[in-house]
Automatic annotation (TrEMBL):
Residues 105-304 form the Metallo-beta-lactamase domain. The keyword Hydrolase applies. It comes from the Bacteria. PANTHER family: ZINC PHOSPHODIESTERASE ELAC PROTEIN 1. Keywords: Hydrolase. It comes from Novosphingobium capsulatum. Pfam families: Lactamase_B_2. This is Ribonuclease BN (tRNA processing enzyme).
Length: 362
């Protein structure tokens, strides 16, 4: 039996660290399967065992998934050249706010471009959602946090720690002022597990070395030669200048890559800066506070919902002003066709109402 591992074009470091682990798991599975077959032969001396295909599915790995399977001998010589994951968006979680929902995980969107993955926000349940999509935590080696409300980073500790345990080389977290504190806390949470893994498995680097914070402000915040990321301050926060809270900023992000432009509003109210950032983008991934969502919040949150989030009509106006081709709605609680109708009254492009695990090709 031969095993073939196919994987999408990942970073070299992922191939060095994660795939060997999967190979190890796979080999162990194959040894067990072989032993079971031998026992069956002994018990059934005169019967022919036909095993055309014995599939051993190893925990799926990165985007496009790493799948190990036994193949007939004729297939054993198949090419092992990596198949690059197609460019696109994967809405891992589409819920906004701290309310747990049966039908939506916390806000998190995976952008794949040029075979690389970029995670925008890391809401509650992000690792579980990656699993549903056939991936594991190391599939998201770079995280961009739009702002530091907890619904946007609640999944970060799990993502970081499981990536560490699965021997990803590092995790980079880009976020507003406060991200250094946040990541320091995440690294601290990882310490008890890391002590055990270091003793058990010889892991060398510490959590503080593994998860790296990068605080950003407005402007170009990232460029790896594959994507360039730009940030503008939006209107999700309204703290008086000079007040201690004014250090907190909320950002909208634009990703420009060869042939693609994708803008994430993050959380925002109406904002000319966001409309300018989104000008001519292929895809606008926008938050929306539906009428039902606004009605559902307690009175002390209502002014924030009304002024510092976008109503369906405001989403439509933003998309129309920016002239985007496709509008993807996310960060939703409950929505109905009347919300889309309001958007449609002012925006004529394509509208996708996001659900968890919705894919949008680029
Ligand atoms: Zn939010
Ligand atoms: Zn928020």
């Amino acid at each position: 039996m031969r095993a073939i591992i196919r994987h999408s074009g990942r970073y070299e470091s992922e191939r060095r660290y994660v795939l060997p682990m999967l190979q190890y798991i796979q080999n162990a599975e194959l040894r067990r399967a072989t032993t079971r077959l031998a026992s069956a032969r002994n018990r059934m001396m005169h019967k022919v065992i036909l095993a055309k295909t014995l599939a051993v599915v190893v925990c799926a790995a990165m985007a496009g998934s790493a799948v190990a399977s036994t193949k007939p001998a004729t297939a054993a010589a198949a090419s092992t050249a990596p198949a690059q994951a197609p460019d696109g968006l994967l809405l891992l979680g589409t819920a906004g706010g701290p309310l747990a929902r049966a039908d939506r995980a916390g806000i998190a969107t995976l952008l794949t471009i040029g075979g690389r993955n970029y995670l925008v926000d890391a809401g509650e349940g992000v690792v579980h959602q990656l699993g549903k999509a056939g991936m594991q935590a190391p599939a998201a080696p770079i995280v961009f946090l739009t702002h530091l409300h907890d619904d946007h980073y609640a999944g970060l500790p799990g993502l970081a720690s499981f990536s560490y345990t699965l021997r990803a080389p590092r995790l980079d977290v880009y976020g507003p002022a406060g991200t250094v504190d946040l990541v320091g806390g995440v690294a601290q949470v990882m310490v008890p597990n890391a002590r055990i893994r270091m003793a058990e498995q010889g892991l060398k680097h510490t959590p503080a070395e593994f998860v790296v914070a990068h605080e950003y402000g407005a402007g170009t915040i990232f460029d790896d030669g594959n994507v360039r990321v730009s940030a503008v301050v939006n209107t999700h926060f309204d703290f008086p200048d000079g007040s201690p809270a004014a250090v907190n900023k909320s950002y909208s992000l634009r990703f420009d890559a060869k042939g693609h432009s994708i803008v994430f509003t993050g959380d925002t109210g109406p904002s000319q800066a966001v409309a300018t950032l989104a000008k001519g983008a292929d895809v606008l991934v926008s938050e929306m506070a539906s009428h039902a969502d606004r009605a559902a919040v307690p009175p002390f949150v209502r002014p924030h919902m009304d002024r510092e989030h976008l109503s369906p009509l405001e989403v439509g106006k933003l998309a129309a002003a920016a002239g985007v081709k496709t509008l993807v709605l996310t960060h939703i609680g409950v929505t109905d066709p009347s919300d889309v109708a309001e958007i449609r009254s002012v925006f004529k492009g394509r509208i996708i109402v996001g659900a968890d695990l919705t894919k949008v090709a680029l």
